[in-house]
Design goal:
With 472 residues, the chain is an alpha+beta fold. 31% of the residues lie in helices and 20% in strands. The strands form 3 sheets. It has a 9-stranded antiparallel beta sheet. It has a 5-stranded mixed beta sheet with strand order 13-12-14-16-15. It has a two-stranded parallel sheet with strand order 3-6. It is globular and about 60 Å long. This is 1-phosphatidylinositol-5-phosphate 4-kinase. Keywords: ATP-binding, Cytoplasm, Kinase, Lipid metabolism, Nucleotide-binding, Transferase. Pfam families: PIP5K. InterPro entries: PInositol-4-P-4/5-kinase_C_sf, PInositol-4-P-4/5-kinase_core, PInositol-4-P-5-kinase_N, PInositol-4/5-P-5/4-kinase.
């Protein structure tokens, strides 16, 4: 039984004001929710999102959002020595002693705005909460947990899995256990840029009814652990829950320094770039009708970004090879019949929950074969198991309500494929720093070179022209 100890924390009274007043309130030490993670930061993220969604259930949905809602935030400070006390109710298991830091802060930005965005993207708050904090019963029969719960009645909450330790900008990428959402660490400048564009972004999402190739921003947070501030943003995963991505590209429409390095190519699932795409004579065959609809949507989104003076974004392209996946499934079944299926089960367990002692493998070696790699500057391929994955679907089939960025290859395509395509990295504003970089690259490569740091109008035109040229 958990000790009936309480801890004083600071909680917000009003969620709608730009600066919320706080009061002291006592919380009883948690008895059921055990936030299991390999890093204290992940535990704080899970705890904070769980707390946030629970608090939001008591806040009425407003008729309309007010200007102050786009400046609002909520903060909570926790000083709880009981988390690390082996004699406390949450310390009966050894791994729980390091489960939560004794002191931390959690800040959520614009909670009502992001709740409204989740609704417009057809994401239920309870599903969002579950994905980011809870390992559902359907997964327990497949995952081999690296630690055992204190009680069979306890709810084990599984941390997001770290897929990419560091990208080009030192960002970390995490994915929820069910592959629905991606969590990316960002910097304070990104937070400021998000605040700059959020009102117009929200209006754009309202006008297009959530039908967009832009990132679906679902929440933004600041976590403070050991005095270090970490900013995180949550988005919908571009790739599928159930269809493995076999090849992926980060495309900008530029040709200067746009080729994957040899180090990148050596990875299990490299992120290829524009020159790789061109040299391989890769094509995206979706048919004339789908091409027309896709380019119309892309043009609308890109023109919106140009209006905001945003540049340096990419089109993330993931390709699922249906025939290859079907063959891989046959090979797995043959291996299981031969009694050799245990290794994959262990891999799935690490992929689902990480390793308590060593943490998640930064190179993705804990994931299913062919699904995991080091993900460069782009979000990870989060192909894997989920509740949706258990639905009886044939090879290459997907749920368009879940895989919102997916398109099937046209019947005329040389290979049966499924494409996942979305715009990513839209928080780069064309400021003085980018102007200086443009000038430097122009001197180095010449005025006619297809460098990436051009002004937003040029960037958007070149981007659209390139994407139109690779679609059939």
């Amino acid at each position: 039984m958990a000790a009936n100890n309480s801890t004083a924390v600071s909680v917000p009274i009003s969620i709608g004001a730009s600066k919320t007043k706080t009061k002291k309130k006592h919380f009883v030490a948690q008895k059921v929710k055990l936030f299991r993670a390999s890093e204290p930061l992940f535990s704080v993220l899970m705890w904070g999102i769980d707390h946030s969604i629970n608090e939001l259930t008591h806040v009425p949905i407003p008729v309309m959002l007010l200007p102050d809602d786009f400046k609002a935030f909520t903060k909570i400070k926790v000083d709880n020595h009981l988390y690390n006390n082996p004699k406390s109710g949450v310390g009966n298991c050894t791994y729980l002693r390091e489960n939560m830091p004794s002191h931390f802060k959690f800040k959520e930005y614009c909670p009502l705005v992001f709740r409204n965005l989740r609704e417009r993207f057809d994401i239920d708050d309870q599903d969002f909460q579950r994905s980011l904090t809870k390992l559902p019963p359907q997964e327990l029969d497949k995952a081999i947990l690296s630690a055992t719960a204190c009680s069979q009645n306890s709810v084990i909450r599984s941390a997001p899995v770290c897929i990419d330790a560091q990208g080009r900008s030192s960002a970390r990428f995490l994915t929820t256990y069910d592959r629905k959402f991606v969590i990316k660490t960002i910097v304070s400048e990104d937070v400021a840029e998000m605040h700059n564009i959020l009102k117009k972004y929200h209006q754009f999402i309202v006008e297009c009814h959530g039908n967009t190739l832009l990132p679906q921003f679902l929440g933004m947070y600041r976590l403070t652990v050991d005095g270090v501030e970490t900013y995180m943003v949550v988005t919908r995963n571009v790739f599928s829950q159930r269809l493995i991505v076999h090849r992926k590209y980060d495309l900008k429409g530029s040709t200067v320094a746009r080729e994957a390095s040899e180090k990148e190519k050596a990875k299990e699932l490299p992120t290829f770039k524009d020159n790789d795409f061109i040299n391989e004579k890769q094509r995206i065959v979706i048919g004339e009708e789908n091409k027309k609809l896709f380019l119309e949507k892309l043009k609308r989104d890109v023109e919106f970004l140009a209006q905001l003076k945003i540049m340096d974004y990419s089109l993330l392209v993931g390709i699922h090879d249906v025939e290859r996946a079907d063959q891989d499934d046959d090979d797995v079944e043959e291996g299981e019949e031969g009694g050799e299926g245990g290794e994959e089960g262990e891999a799935g367990a690490e992929w689902a929950g990480g390793d308590d002692e060593t943490g998640s493998d930064a190179n993705g070696s804990g994931g299913p074969v062919g699904a995991v790699g080091s993900y460069g500057t782009t979000p990870p391929d989060c192909s894997g198991f989920s509740v949706a994955a258990y639905k009886p679907m044939g090879p290459g089939e997907f749920d368009p309500n879940t895989d919102v960025y997916a398109l099937k290859a046209h019947e005329s395509a040389p290979r049966k494929e499924v494409y996942f395509m979305a715009i990513i990295d839209i928080l780069t504003h064309y400021d003085a720093k980018k102007k200086a970089a443009h000038a430097a690259k122009t001197v180095k490569h010449g005025a006619g070179a297809e460098i990436s740091t051009v002004n937003p109008e040029q960037y958007s035109k070149r981007f659209l022209d390139f994407m139109a040229s690779i679609l059939e």
